[in-house]
Specification:
This protein is α/β, with parallel strands linked by helices. It has 10 helices and 10 strands. 40% of the residues lie in helices and 21% in strands. Helix 9 crosses helix 10. It is globular. It starts with a strand and ends with a strand. InterPro entries: UspA (IPR006016).
Length: 274
Amino acid sequence: MRDILALAADYRSWDGGMAYAADLAARLDGTLTGVFVQPSPLLMMPGYSSPDLLEAVIENARDVERKAHDAQGAFVAWAKTIGARRVAWQVAEGHVPEVLARLGNWHDLLVLERNAQAPWGSPPDLGMLALRTHLPCLVVPRDWRVARLDRIALGWNGSAESLRAIHASIPLLQHASKVALLDGGQRDPDLEIGWIPHFDVEAYLRLHCVEIERIRLDTDDERAGETLLDAAADIGAELLVMGAYGRTRISEWAFGGATRKVLADATIPLFLRH
């Protein structure tokens, strides 16, 4: 996990989630790329707009993009004061999920700030980005500026999504002094012809020098998200890792809606992998 991408809500100042991303890059000795995405002015204009109005909107967008490009030096200097040693800045125009998916081709992790006042910062939008960018996503509450990794909780139900999340989070788990596996029980396997190897999550993590404490969760699908948050709070977790699952753009989540609940209510950073 050496290449960290973080979405900037503003090109003029950086705090909250971006500060967390810079601190995480410093702790992992990785690179940080901040990206500011300007929506395309053509997508924002109704078809009946006058040519003069369209020209004004396009010129305003170009002015924003020029200023965003000019912010590169200030962003790099700011990130280095936090400890990030290798820093880049990107500016793009377009639809945010498509831009992030493109940048994700050469990044390992996407850091997003949960901030309903910022573009793409509300839980439904964050869930869409987690599904469509094809990157592990670390969703950070606005008041978290330091990437504390001492205590980490893992949401586990045996699904492919939760397994992918654990696999992707190993570089973070190796920094923790306590890792708790919040075991919600195995999901019923799909009927298949043939045989697949059994996966032992404890043995797998031990191979990566990660020892866990297993905590059994007794809950139903309706309360799974609440139960995960309560169990993470009980151990003082500073990060919750879990799989995200969606079949449609409206998104049906693993644990019967657990991800939706956690995205809305988590007070700690959330690591998601679809």
